[in-house]
Specification:
202 residues; alpha/beta; Rossmann fold; 9 helices; 54% helix; nucleotide-binding; ATP binding; Dephospho-CoA kinase
Length: 202
């Protein structure tokens, strides 16, 4: 196992994926909680069967996969259903994340999760790296990227920790309000720091 774990998070539209993509080019293992969340509901999985039994064919695609949008529409407006889904998925996601952390062999490992702090995943991390941008820029970038309405983006932001709460929990902050070169320069320095810290802790 890579003994040193960096938790990578940030609000929607902050550039978490761009940051983890860059660190992966440095040979660092990236464990992406969003990908893990898709894996635990893959066709044939126990979680998908439980979801189908509860919600029926309305949340299933023709190919046997999960219709994530249909499910999201149901749970977003029903707190009880949302709690049921979280109780089903969170333990399965956590188990798989811990297995992947155990299997990692890179100099250090990055656990990338939009809800790293909200879901308590930072307990498995040595440091928390927050990608930070002003909230107005979060909205503008996400609207452009996803072709969504500003109100939708603001609703998602409201379900996440607010910016000041996130920054309070950060060990390291990368401000991503410039171009990719600027982002990469900041991450380059952190990559060096993390390798040194991992060597010392190892």
């Amino acid at each position: 196992m890579s003994a040193y774990v960096i938790g990578l998070t940030g609000g929607i539209g902050s550039g978490k994926s761009a940051a983890s993509d860059f660190l992966s080019t440095k040979g660092i293992d990236i464990i992406d909680a969003d990908i893990v969340a898709r894996e635990v509901v893959a066709p044939g999985s126990e979680c998908l069967l439980a979801i189908k039994n509860r919600f029926g064919d309305d949340v299933m695609m023709a190919d046997g996969g999960l219709d994530r949008k249909a499910l999201r529409d149901i749970v977003f407006s029903d707190e009880q259903q949302k709690q049921w889904l979280n109780q089903l998925l969170h333990p399965a996601i956590r188990t798989r994340i811990l297995q992947q952390l155990e299997a990692s062999r890179s100099a250090y490992v990055v656990l990338a999760a939009p809800l790293l702090l909200e879901n308590g995943l930072d307990q498995y991390c040595d440091r928390v790296l927050v990608i930070d941008i002003p909230e107005s820029l979060q909205v503008a970038r996400t609207v452009k990227r996803d072709n969504s309405e500003p109100q939708q983006v603001e609703a998602i932001m409201a379900a996440q920790l607010n910016r000041s709460q996130r920054l309070q929990k950060a060990d390291d902050v990368v401000v991503n309000d410039g171009d990719l070169d600027n982002l990469h320069q900041q991450l380059n320095q952190l990559d060096k720091n993390y390798r040194l810290a991992a060597n010392r802790s190892g």
